[in-house]
From TrEMBL:
<dbReference type="InterPro" id="IPR013022">
    <property type="entry name" value="Xyl_isomerase-like_TIM-brl"/>
</dbReference>
<protein>
    <recommendedName>
        <fullName>Xylose isomerase-like TIM barrel domain-containing protein</fullName>
    </recommendedName>
</protein>
<feature type="domain" description="Xylose isomerase-like TIM barrel">
    <location>
        <begin position="22"/>
        <end position="253"/>
    </location>
</feature>
<dbReference type="Pfam" id="PF01261">
    <property type="entry name" value="AP_endonuc_2"/>
</dbReference>
<dbReference type="InterPro" id="IPR036237">
    <property type="entry name" value="Xyl_isomerase-like_sf"/>
</dbReference>
<dbReference type="InterPro" id="IPR050312">
    <property type="entry name" value="IolE/XylAMocC-like"/>
</dbReference>
Length: 271
C-alpha cells in the first residue's frame, strides 16, 4: 500500500482555503491534494486561485513546506458555448501549481461537438503536461461510463482520459464489464467514496447526495472491492467525500480527511 497515492479532494473539505487544505492533508497523512480552480456551482464557497496571486503564493509556500503535491485540477465544463482557448489561463495556473490531471464535465447534448471540444482541450492541455479526464455524472450529458469511453475514444488524443468516480459509477448503473474494456492508460486517477441506499428515482436527489451526502469507503452499499479490482492496481485515488452532516456537527476538515483516509486504506487492504 505504500506506493499508492492518496489525494484529498477539494469537495471533501470545501470550507478550507487551499493553504489550509494543504496543511490538513499533510497532517492527515495524504501525499497529494486536488485544487478547485473553477467552482462547480455558483453557490459553493470558492477561493479564487486563478485570480488571486497572493493566494497562489500562500498555497505554493504551504505545498513547499509540507511536501504535499497537487494531483488534479477542477473543474472545466464543456458547454455548447464553450471556447476552449478561454481555458488557457486556468491551465497555466494549474501547471504552475504542479497539477497534472484535469477534471472535465460534459455539459453539451451534441456529442460530436463535445468530442471535438474535448479533443481541442486535450491539445491545449498537452502543452502544459496536463491530462484531461472526462468525468461521467448521471445529471450531465455524459451520464455513464460507456458514453465517457466513447467520447474519449473518438477524440483520439493520447492524453485524453476517463475519470471513474465510485459515486457516479454506482448511481449511473455503469458496469464492471464496461470498465474492463477501458484501457489502463486512460485512467490516471480515480475518485473514491461510498454511497448508501438504492439509486434514487429523482435526479435532484442524486445530485444532492453527490454534493452533500457521500459515505466514507466501507460505510455504504457500493461494491468498492469489485470496482477497485477493475482499476489499475496502483492508480492514484482522490478521496472525494462531502459529508455535510459531519460538517454541521462541527467535525473539522482535518478530522474528516483523516477519517476518509483511514476508511479508504481499510477497504484497500481487502482488495
Amino acid at each position: 500500500m505504500t506506493d499508492r497515492i492518496f489525494s484529498l479532494a477539494a469537495l471533501t473539505v470545501l470550507e478550507l482555503s487551499p493553504p489550509d487544505m494543504v496543511e490538513a492533508a499533510a497532517r492527515a497523512g495524504y501525499s497529494h491534494v486536488g485544487l478547485r480552480l473553477v467552482p462547480a456551482t455558483e453557490q459553493e464557497q470558492h477561493f479564487p486561485l486563478v485570480a488571486d496571486a497572493d493566494l497562489r503564493r500562500q498555497t505554493q509556500a504551504r505545498l513547499r513546506d509540507t511536501g504535499i503535491k497537487v494531483l488534479d485540477l477542477e473543474i472545466l465544463r464543456l458547454k455548447p458555448e464553450t471556447c476552449v482557448a478561454d481555458f488557457e489561463p486556468i491551465l497555466a495556473v494549474g501547471a504552475e501549481l504542479g497539477g497534472t490531471e484535469l477534471l472535465v464535465a460534459g455539459n453539451d447534448p451534441d456529442e460530436a461537438r463535445l468530442t471535438e471540444r474535448f479533443a481541442a482541450l486535450c491539445d491545449l492541455a498537452a502543452g502544459y503536461g496536463i491530462y484531461p479526464h472526462l468525468e461521467f455524472m448521471p445529471w450531465t450529458d455524459v451520464r455513464d461510463l460507456s458514453r465517457a469511453m466513447r467520447v474519449v475514444a473518438n477524440a483520439d488524443r493520447s492524453n485524453g482520459c476517463v475519470l471513474v468516480d465510485a459515486f457516479h459509477f454506482n448511481r449511473s448503473r455503469s458496469s464492471l464489464d464496461d470498465l474492463a474494456q477501458l484501457a489502463p492508460q486512460r485512467m490516471r486517477y480515480a475518485q473514491l467514496c461510498d454511497v448508501a441506499g438504492p439509486v434514487p428515482a429523482d435526479m435532484d436527489e442524486i445530485l444532492r447526495q453527490a454534493r452533500n451526502e457521500r459515505r466514507f469507503p466501507g460505510d455504504g452499499d457500493a461494491d468498492l472491492v469489485s470496482l477497485l479490482r477493475g482499476l489499475p492496481p496502483t492508480v492514484p485515488l482522490s478521496l472525494e467525500i462531502p459529508t455535510r452532516q459531519l460538517l454541521e456537527q462541527g467535525v473539522s476538515g482535518e478530522q474528516r480527511a483523516r477519517m476518509a483516509l483511514e476508511k479508504a486504506m481499510a477497504v484497500l487492504a481487502i482488495v
